[in-house]
Amino acid sequence: MNVDRITEKLNILADAAKYDVSCASSGSKRKNENKGLGNASNGICHSYTEDGRCVSLLKILLTNHCIFDCAYCVSRKSNDIQRAAFTVQEVVDLTINFYRRNYIEGLFLSSGIFKDADYTMERLVRIAKKLRTEHKFNGYIHLKSIPGASDELMNEAGLYADRLSVNLEMPTEAGLKLLAPDKNQADMIKPMGYLKNAIIQRTEEKKLFKKAPIFAPAGQSTQVIIGATPENDSQILRSASYFYKNFNLKRVYYSGYVPVLADSRLPALNTSVPMVRENRLYQADWLMRFYGFKVNEIVNDSQPHLDLDIDPKLGWAIRNMQAFPVNINQADVQMILRVPGIGLLSAQKIVSARKFGKLNWEQLKKMGVALNRAKYFITCNSTEFERRDLTGNNIKQFILATSQSKYLKNTQVQLNLF
Amino acid sequence: MMTTLIYDGTFEGLLTSVFEVYDRKLNLVNLQKTGQDNNALFEDKLQVITDDERANRVLKGLKQKISSMGLQRLYAAHLAEMDGEENSLLGYIRYAFDAGQNIEENYGNKFVMRISEMVRMVRREKHRMEAFVRFQKLKDETFYAAIEPDFNVLPLLIRHFKSRYADQKWIIYDIRRKYGIYYNLHDTQYISLDFANVSKPGDIVAAFTEDEEIYQHLWKNYFTSVNIPSRKNTRLHVRHIPKRYWKHLTEKI
Ligand code: SF4
């Protein structure tokens, strides 16, 4: 092995891949039944970058050579940078050796397009196949589908990969036209549609025949870049909701645009990464997926942007004061989930515990409820509660005043989800 | 009057203590591990002698009161060896016996809530270890990792690593508690290692395979390459990987 050369390739091709934010390695149930190497079940973050992001997969490009010229991308054709390409065997060796040392959960392989879509896709598939068949590797494999790749290759990819993704990149077609003139949305959506149907069909087969092969068990996901084009949050979340519904997507990732290139179509190089906005979009996405919120309740024409200073759940609550206060000891779980300061876990605990007797403030606090926010919206087994007739705006001011450090002092901090 | 029970720290010992509480109809009890003695001369003190038969009777009774899942959680909380939590464990068991119904989900009760918190802490530590173990390949093809977890979670790690690394020999060693697990491609066993003869770090490095250094180097490089400086957030970084874990993390050394 030529250590210097491989180090150089790794540096170039990991660096070029890092702007893809997705790192999930969960949702697959691939087991180690062949006494081979690894399993893909838990989705562990093995490390964290200095910017606090999870490092779970070996995330690299096969190559950063590309025939396209997407404005937002460091690998674009017209960018004057160092290029490199791994061989199939090099990627396989890195994956296996990193995995054996417990550095990673598996491989996330993407690529610039060299020659054409199928030529590139075929190599990605070959790597996955080699790992699965020659090395009995059961770790997680996420392949990025190259827009325009043939159905046959997509099908083969699904047989070896746990997750497949096609990045939509821009929330709307207009945005895509502007920044990625070589791409068209139809080319990107086609493989998504193919995968959706194939996944449904294979899941049915699997129910009938236990021996039927598993097909992309962790489903498909996509990524949109935020802040490179002028779409508002309403457009972004609506398009996310559309793809969740129509393509059975497991996840939509929102990636705050990191200015890396000077281009008149793009935000200037010194623009800061919209991290708070990105975080608010993730929170809104969670509300849609786990808390039973409809996209219209979070953003709509009169409210096209998410509040940057408060989270979208609190935002909804103060716009809908008529729905509160909620009686913790009686309300159904759907309504309890809508209370600011109560998360999925504490909602479950509340519903279990109240069967044993009515709950008071002290008990709620112990269960993990953030009372400084929840207290304005609930009543419980206590004569003390927020009696003042506060407007939504008052409440917002009070909450902001008590949690100032979190929201205002240091906007660089990536916030927690609820 | 407060009675102090002193037991040996084992799960059987804990269950035997429960037996004593009911057998002697004790009410106010303070449970301690041997060695935690605080010399309170005026208290009533009782040394509990661990007795498998009595422990089993309590266990059987407990199984009538809580689910097998609840029992596992209790066991995990005990295994953690958290200081000063004996009375939470005892309180939980007594509450389970005294209540007329299954109390596992009564989070309004302080013992149930405390055990739930302890289990959460243990699980978090277990997950951290599943993430932070860094194997180094030795010349005989065994993969070796040293850990220093906050709680005693090594026994809880066996299942995960055994099913994941089924085709390689490995050792995970808890340096603080001085014992480890060895997997020989078929089974796992508890082992202790004698480090007395390993005086210089160089001696350990000499046992590595040749490519060990290369992959450590590549991994460190990878870790540096994926960082996005314009998003730097040290507070978040340290919250995810507290500094006390760094010395065993290849990428942070
Ligand atoms: S096709 Fe992909 S790699 Fe090529 S320039 Fe566009 S985004 Fe970058």
TrEMBL record, chain A:
GO molecular function: catalytic activity; iron-sulfur cluster binding; metal ion binding
Lineage: superkingdom: Bacteria
Signal peptide bounds: none
Start and end residues of each Radical SAM core domain: 61-198
Cofactor(s) of this protein: [4Fe-4S] cluster
InterPro entries registered for this protein in UniProt: Aldolase_TIM (IPR013785), DNA_rSAM_put (IPR023874), Endo/Exo/Phosphatase_dom_1 (IPR051675), rSAM (IPR007197), rSAM_sf (IPR058240), RuvA_2-like (IPR010994)
SUPFAM superfamilies cross-referenced by the UniProt entry: Radical SAM enzymes, RuvA domain 2-like
Keywords: Iron, Iron-sulfur, Metal-binding, S-adenosyl-L-methionine
Transmembrane segment boundaries: none
Entry-linked PANTHER family: ENDONUCLEASE/EXONUCLEASE/PHOSPHATASE FAMILY DOMAIN-CONTAINING PROTEIN 1, TYPE II SECRETION SYSTEM PROTEIN K
Name of the molecule in the record: DNA modification/repair radical SAM protein
TrEMBL record, chain B:
Domain spans labelled DUF4130: 85-251
Highest taxon of source: Bacteria
Pfam family, one: DUF4130
Species: Mucilaginibacter phyllosphaerae
InterPro entries in the record: DNA_repair_put (IPR023875), DUF4130 (IPR025404)
Protein name: DNA metabolism protein
